[in-house]
Design a protein that fits this description.
Length: about 70
């Protein structure tokens, strides 16, 4: 399935259930990977980020929750 097709399905269900977007799903997925201790470089690759800085923000959000 193409990414745009998945986005279309998610947006269709979002209207019926609750406000959810592909971006929210992606952020939740990456954040949970960080919580499980997956290396940021691996998450960067899986998420398709060009910069490690984009991935590093997930670690920052986890650190802020702990303190």
């Amino acid at each position: 399935m193409q990414p745009r097709a998945i986005q279309f399905v998610v947006e269709g269900y979002s209207d019926k259930l609750f406000a959810v977007t592909c971006q929210i799903l992606r952020h939740t997925y990456c954040r949970r990977l960080v919580e499980q201790g997956i290396p940021l470089q691996q998450i960067k690759q899986w998420a398709g980020h060009k910069s490690i800085q984009s991935t590093f923000r997930y670690k920052g959000s986890i650190d802020q929750k702990r303190y």
